[in-house]
Request: fold
Amino acid sequence: MIERDEAVYGITTGFGSLAQTFIESDQREALQQNLIRALAAGMGDPVEPEVIRAMMLLRARTLAMGYSGARLVVVQTLLDVLNAGILPLVPEHGSLGASGDLAPLAHVALVLSGEGFVIADTGLRPAAEALAEHGMAPLKFEAKDGVSLINGSDGMLGMLVLACHDTRRLLATAEIAAAMTVEVLLGINRAFAEDLQDVRPHQGQKTSAKNLTLVLEGSPIVASHRYDDPRVQDAYSLRCTPQVIGPARDTLRHAEEIADIELHSAVDNPVVLPDGRIESCGNFHGAPLGYACDFLAIALADVCSMAERRIDRMLDATRSEGLPAFLTADPGVNSGMMSGHYTVAGICAENRRLAAPASIDSMPTSAGQEDHVSMGWGAARKLRRLVANTARVLAVELVAASRGLDFRAPLEPGASTGAVHRVIRLHVDPPATDRYLALELAAVEAIVLDGAIVEAAESVIGALAGPAALPEPESSRLSATRPQLRFFFCRATEIRAPDLRSP
Reply:
């Protein structure tokens, strides 16, 4: 097509509203390099290393599917840079989520060509130096190479995949923390019975109720008030836990399904079809990812909101079933967990702002040619913050619940919650006089994030129930012969990409 001087978007024409501008043959290589330079216009702090690495891997994945018309050397250079641990500088602001994550991916592509900067232990350094250090020559872009490197939603997808990975663990942790609070507040576990869930059989709700039942199984504290208890039902924040964490599980499954489809998709524009046609399309648009990120953010914000209500109930002596005010032995002289609740309240207020959808906030650009954009990058960025906030809220609930279990002595917790309590006590001392609370909360936040809470519970009761496996994608011509990734639940910092030069 190049030899025939046909008008093909981004190859023999300009970009965006300049698509009607024909580019002469002697300017087409410069067109690709100039595109990368012009779009590397991000601002702000660098995004996290795992996000940058995920972007690189996922962009290589799309190019390797063969629908982009990029040369093999482009894909291999991207993988070589990834495997060498070279980390392109990618600023946080710049992507509108259509045409994909242009600015973030342009900062990655710029490094492949020996321009721009990379992040090193000593600070920023020129990309050319980092490439030379690893024996790599800068890549010289030819027709379609530059546009292929940037026309994708890989930043959004990478952040969604990482958020799904973390959310799976956090929802299990939320069920464990809620079960401990049920014990502490002398709650009634009959509301979680399987036959009650079968009356309203949402899959996530059934899974969550099953986990709560497993974690509370055999609890002496629960057994201590099973009979002759004048209370017939608990507050919503205890009784309705499966009806909130459960739908969050269903929302997570939906987000995983969207991500899984994306991981089987060729996301580019224009695309090269098997019969040789090069067609413009809208597959780079990030709406599917933006919607999924916004939906998952809403669910996590509500999980945190319910946890905040449980924390408040444990600290309030008028509603905590005999526990000392603010879970301290000498209220007044000591404030106990009072300020921990302040922190959670502030986080939950921020969560409500973060749960406001980004994907409806389109702003036209490029002289009206790109007149609807997804804002999916912004949706993914705020989802990451909400995931981190969820870990913090659950850490405070776990610290409070562990104190509550101490005050319930000599009554013993269940075997599973007891194991979690012992793990927390390895990092946080029992309640006594007031001390530097932030250190305790940070310590438990760390074990929430590394999975120690879930591991402790499962060491007693076995694996908690989780979502069913994702269905295989519908067969298509993408599925049989193209390299693909199944949905991965791993940290992107641990990813090592394949070498396409090997057989």
Residues 376-408 form the longest helix (33 residues). The CA atoms of residues 171 and 378 lie 23 Å apart.
